[in-house]
Amino acid sequence: MDSWRCQCTHWSRSPQQHKMFTYSGKERWEPVALKFTRIIKDNKWSDRKTKQRVFDCLVGDALEYADKLPRTLGFTKLKKKMKERFSDKDVPVVARRELNFTKQEESEILAEFAQRIQTITGDGFAHANITTRNQIATEAFIKGCCEKMAAQRARERNPKTAHKALNI
User: Fold this and answer.
1) 98-148 confidence digits (pLDDT tens)
2) Which of 48, 52, 93, 106 has the smallest number of CB atoms closer than 10 Å to its CB?
3) Is residue 74 part of a domain?
4) Residue that wins the pLDDT comparison between 159 and 75
5) Average pLDDT over residues 64-83
6) Rg (CA), the chain
7) Does an H or E element contain 38, and which?
8) Cα 153 from chain centroid (whole Å)
9) Does residue 68 sit in the same domain as residue 27?
10) 75 with 100, same domain?
11) Are residues 104 and 50 in the same domain?
């Protein structure tokens, strides 16, 4: 019985294991940096180990960007550079990039997909006039639509909005 208590006490003192995640640059950097800072403190990592773990979590654009930075940067400066590149001010850039690759999910109905496209287009082209935004959203909707016959019909009729493309 006493040995069991010792084991339980020993286990409770061990640092909490955090599930590692990936960061691609498509979402805001700040929440990721906050979570990572907490993990660093919990695990008492050195700056070198911290940088290794950060790079282990980076994928896509975020990894390409970080890999081009000087190797001598500490975590604090790396965090600052990532914030400059992937903070809210880049939401339009990220949204435009995302719009190029957005596809309808298998379980997603056309109306949901159209709404998702409209949201991304609004984020990426907030300062464009409504006609331009609708045109961009319609093109992205047709391009990402899984139902190829519906997309072809929409392409032929040249709808003015993604929602009108839904009704064709």
Assistant:
1) 898 899 988 888 888 888 899 899 988 988 999 999 999 999 999 998 888
2) 106
3) yes
4) 75
5) 87
6) 23
7) helix 30-43
8) 32
9) yes
10) no
11) no
d(Cα 158, Cα 103) in Å, to the nearest integer? 20
Return the structure tokens found at 21.
């995640």
Contact 55, 81 (CB under 8 A): no
Q: Which residues, other chains included, contact 166 with Cβ-Cβ below 8 Å and sequence gap of 6+? A: 110, 111, 114
Cα–Cα nearest to 80, from 19, 43, 37: 37
Which among 68, 86, 104 is the end of a domain? 86
Q: Which domain holds residue 24?
A: 18-86
Residue 48, token pair as written in the block: 């070198």
Nearest alpha-carbon partner for 116 in 146, 87, 88, 72: 146
pTM exceeds 0.85 for this model:
no
- Report the domain count for the chain: 2
Contact by Cβ (8 Å): 162, 141: yes
Same domain, 96 and 31: no
**114 and 142 in contact (C-beta within 8 Å)?**
no
pLDDT at 18: 57
Q: Is residue 8 part of a domain?
A: no
Q: Which residues pair with 58 in a beta bridge?
A: 23
Q: Tell me, yes or no, whether 66 and 100 share the same domain.
A: no
